[in-house]
Amino acid sequence: MGFGDLKSAAGLRVLNDFLADKSYIEGYVPSQADIVVFEAVGAPPPAELFHALRWYNHIKSYEKQKASLPGIKKALGKYGPADVEDTTGAATDSKDDDDIDLFGSDDEEESEEAKKLREERLAQYESKKSKKPAVVAKSSILLDVKPWDDETDMAKLEECVRSIQADGLVWGSSKLVPVGYGIKKLQIQCVVEDDKVGTDMLEERITAFEDYVQSMDVAAFNKI
């Protein structure tokens, strides 16, 4: 458990990912857990780590009240994702005053080992996250398909529209809506994957049935 070194880019990325679906480090209200991590971060995260930056600015607003926030402060390594090993105290050894190494060679070696271990753990964490399936962006679109006149076979027109098949396109419900002079338009719903199907492609394919279709308009467009 832990975020790693929160002064490093890798540690801040872990914090950002951790806060992607959370408002606070623990629970549903600001607490001493947030203060511990806030103080470890020390400065606003970069703008591209927007989850971490949003959290940082929010906790900063509690600066005058931090002593009164609920909870008990724990070591920094007690907070964060369970699959990142805490190495925040790995390089700290207590030594007697009469056994100080003025050159610090042993400490430096141990610090390098701890740093290497931390980077390996963070790399494993990043690799595990990259294998998660990406969220597919979808939209719900309501189309108005207008015929040439009141003699157009609307059943055949709808059949033509529904005959359009594409990866990422699913047709939904439809109805005929009067537009005047005995003419009705076809109003039909569809759901599309944004990176595979666009309104330009739909218009091109639908208006290709020129014996039945005069025009196509987008009546409503909503992200899902």
UniProtKB/TrEMBL annotation:
Q: Which SUPFAM superfamilies match?
A: eEF-1beta-like, GST C-terminal domain-like
Q: Which UniProt keywords apply?
A: Elongation factor, Protein biosynthesis
GO cellular component terms, A-Z: cytosol; eukaryotic translation elongation factor 1 complex
Translation elongation factor EF1B beta/delta subunit guanine nucleotide exchange domain boundaries: 138-224
Annotated region Disordered: where?
83-114
Q: Which PROSITE patterns match?
A: EF1BD_1 (PS00824), EF1BD_2 (PS00825)
As one GO molecular function, the record gives: guanyl-nucleotide exchange factor activity
* Protein biosynthesis keyword on record: yes
Q: Where is the composition biased (Acidic residues)?
A: 95-112
Q: Where is the Elongation factor 1 beta central acidic region eukaryote domain?
A: 102-129
**InterPro entries in alphabetical order:** eEF-1beta-like_sf, EF-1_beta_acid_region_euk, EF1B_bsu/dsu, EF1B_bsu/dsu_GNE, Glutathione-S-Trfase_C_sf, Transl_elong_EF1B/ribsomal_bS6, Transl_elong_EF1B_B/D_CS
Top-level taxon in the UniProt lineage: Eukaryota
Tell whether Protein biosynthesis is among the UniProt keywords.
yes
The similarity comment for this entry is: Belongs to the EF-1-beta/EF-1-delta family.
Subunit structure as annotated in this protein's UniProt entry: EF-1 is composed of 4 subunits: alpha, beta (alpha subunit of the eEF1B subcomplex), delta (beta subunit of the eEF1B subcomplex), and gamma (gamma subunit of the eEF1B subcomplex). Interacts with elongation factor EEF1A1.
Give the protein's biological function. Catalytic subunit of the guanine nucleotide exchange factor (GEF) (eEF1B subcomplex) of the eukaryotic elongation factor 1 complex (eEF1). Stimulates the exchange of GDP for GTP on elongation factor 1A (eEF1A), probably by displacing GDP from the nucleotide binding pocket in eEF1A.
Protein's name in the database: Elongation factor 1-beta
